[in-house]
Amino acid sequence: MSALRHQSARPPAAATARVVLVNPYELGRQPFALAEPAAWLRRAGFEVACIDLSRQRLEPEKLAGAALVGVYLGMHTATRIAVEALPKLRALAPHAHLAAYGLYAPMNATLLHTLGVATVFGGESEPDLLALAEALRDGRVPPAGGVRLDKIDFLVPDRSGLPPLERYAALVLPDGSTQVAGFTEGSRGCKHRCRHCPVVPVYDGRFRIVPIPVVIEDIRRQVAAGAAHISFGDPDFFNGPTHARRLVETLHREFPTLTYDVTVKIEHLVHHAELIPVLRETGCRFVTSAVESVDDRVLERLAKGHTAADFARAVALLRAAGVALAPTFVPFTPWTGLEGYVELLERLVELELVESVPPVQLSIRLLVPEGSRLLDLQDFRKRLGPFDPALLGYPWRHEDPRVDALQQQVQDLAADAEARALGRHAAFAAIRELAYTALGRTAPALPPGPIGTPAAHLSEAWYCCAEPTREQLQSF
Ligand code: SF4
Q: pLDDT tens for residues 369-384?
């Protein structure tokens, strides 16, 4: 394990063995990454409280007397929220040892230390959180933080103490009705090394399987708690195709009416096309896939491992099998001009995917966090400003200022569309107007009705690096 910080001072033994785990945000899903360490800690006799800031306020009584507060930083938005929350956590638990874990913790370790976080973990962190809690309880020197990629013995996540599933993102069916959704993970990490991906600085091409009996028991408990749909949070569900097949077949045998969704990269959808009908037959409602761009030069720079033609092929394969696609994008990059942005929008019209793309996806700007493989691109690196702690990344500007202005307009429009629950066709049309106007052209007329088939989706959109909203920053 690579050390991120070593505590040399020997602390006094903690008066209690109380641990508080905090989740700033995880796309409205009930977090596996709190439930799994909670299981490890409770098995060892610790009293564990969980606080999900996306659903709960910071309650002083939950934090009072905590010996350890562990903050889970699984995504950029969560980290931005945590930066606001950490001073409040410190004030409410002045004697607690603050730790951070999750993908975004190691890459932001320097900043987190300035905010009072003493120990930072990454990767398979449960043994380290447990060792830290035990050291604090026993008055021993806390272990150093670091990134662990060893295989660990997963326990069934312990979700007691988290808000009920009904309070989390729901599955929204095409007719507008909703179903309770659960959330689990069949693997962590990823065997690929896409340049812009936050998984890579931590897992560096490795992934870890969660044993099928553990996943199934976790799902069993969530079904008992009311879940009719399960969202799998694996960075890529087909990293281990044999595991994936066994998992969904086992799931479907026990829960034939349960539906689920997964995330699979375009390259895997094309290369493991034989698995797509298996997804359909076992209850998969939709597949999220990080398409990112329809420009092969941009895809090459991101080292995505697929082409624009592969994207079209994956759309056709999923459609033929009757599985919906939820594509995600990074439309604003230093290598995408206004023409390229309009090309993306028109491609969504041609492929009849407008109903499959929430407006936030059309506003995402390439993020360059600390440790990103994008920093290996020397010509790009020269264009970056110094690391910006407010942004949690290296800022860049497009050589055409109209692109940066458009990105801001689209971001504002997407937030407004979300707040007003504007339909996807209307939001898309408004964004397209903005893009054509920026180009100094008139947008050709769009077909009037839905462009594509409205598909089931979760009520909180998937993304990895959007700006947190004011509500998210102030809700706790
Ligand atoms: S973008 Fe997806 S496929 Fe690429 S490294 Fe990240 S998780 Fe893996």
A: 998 999 999 999 999 9
